[in-house]
Amino acid sequence: MKAHSAAWLAAVALAAGVARANRPDFREQIVVPGGRFGLGTDHIEFPLDAEGPARPVTVKPFVLDKYEVSIDRFAEFVNATGYITEAERFGWSFVHEKALDEAVLQTITQAVQSVPWWLPVDNASWSHPEGAASDASGRGSHPAVHLSHADADAFCAWAMPGGRLPTEVEWERAARGGKEGRMYAWGNKLKPRNKHRANIWQGQFPLKNTARDGFKWAAPVDAFGPQNQWGFHGVAGNAWEWTATEWCDPARPAPDCRGKQAPADAGDVEWVKKGGSFLCHKSYCFRYRVAARTKNTANSGAYNLGARCARDATPEEQRLVESGSAVQVGAPEVGNAVPPSTEGVTDGAKVGYRPGQHAAAGADEL
Ligand SMILES: [Ca+2]
User: Which Pfam families match (predicted)?
Assistant: First the structure.
């Protein structure tokens, strides 16, 4: 495994310091009011995803990152803690074939039959998104990807006191921005006034991406501006985002297949992810709708899989949102000195590439 160089990490840390003085550093958060709202949809596109029917749920006030976790933020975390992600432990991660150059493609001998565009690439990780020959220089404002569920959890626990992943209910509450029954975070029209509102795939998936929205692959986490009236960026498209809600097989008899919380992280647990990604096209992955949901196994990493962090609202913050409007708050103190947990982190050396295991996960990637 080739780790990111200390020099590069130092450069990133320095760049992050400069960035803080001059532009948003993507650590801003938004306090979301509690209340009752409609989770899911009656306009079901993927019945097996258990998107619907819509049903009322109640949520307490909480705080959620305004942006997806950026590469610069994740670099700060790694620099401070020495954390090694699961993709780095495994020594590989999934990358879309069209994002790879010929030299890398020549080295790949395995693929997943059901999703042949996903290729296992040696040394692909948050700091080397397309493999060892790539690095994240100049992409610090892009979402950190190739994160496993445990990696995302560890980052959030470090990034702020009480930091954690949002539940699916919290995530959807935030993405709806206080509006009921809308298809997208911003409304019902994909391109209001013919303006792209999210980084998704245009063209023909998986062969041709015309990038009409300006981005073929990941975009800066603020590239499309606020996507709803509460000010959240990137809740639709760009990177998929892990949640703290365990996936429950809708075919399995259960009183409620949504909202179940897993007791502990583990490699084979499946978790709900939300938001769709830059690889989503309506023909294949119409999952940038706010009610859409799918899953990954906890130890899966991929080129389009990231996170944003949540925490409980303080009593003072709860009072701020009593009127029902969301309120932006300053960035949390970085690094609360909680050592990252390695509990539940799979030992990649023992697991390696298991096509059978990842075929199932890969099929749900997009
Ligand atoms: Ca795009």
Answer: FGE-sulfatase
Domain span holding position 149: 6-256+265-333+357-365
**CA-closest candidate to residue 153, choices 48, 330, 162, 215:** 162
In the reported structure, the alpha carbon of residue 198 is separated from the centroid of ligand 1 by a whole-number distance in angstroms of 8
DSSP assignment string, 268-287 = T-EEEEES--TT--TTT---
- Residue 129 CA, ligand 1 centroid: distance in Å: 17
Structure-token match 């009127």, residue found: 323
> 279: CA distance to ligand 1 center in Å?
7
The CATH number assigned to the domain holding 53 equals 3.90.1580.10
Instruction: Let me know if residue 352 belongs to a domain.
Output: no
In a domain, 85, yes or no: yes
Total domain count, the chain: 1
The verdict on residue 147 lying in a domain is yes
Render each residue's pLDDT in the chain as its tens digit; 366 residues: 344 455 555 554 444 444 444 556 899 999 999 999 999 999 999 988 989 999 999 999 999 999 999 999 999 999 999 999 999 999 999 999 999 999 999 999 888 888 999 999 999 999 999 999 999 999 999 999 999 999 999 999 999 999 999 999 999 999 999 999 999 999 999 999 999 999 999 999 999 999 999 999 999 999 999 999 999 999 999 999 999 998 876 555 344 444 455 555 556 788 999 999 999 999 999 999 999 999 999 999 999 999 999 999 999 999 999 999 999 997 776 655 444 444 444 333 223 333 333 333 343 445
Cα–Cα distance, 197 to 235 (Å, whole number): 10
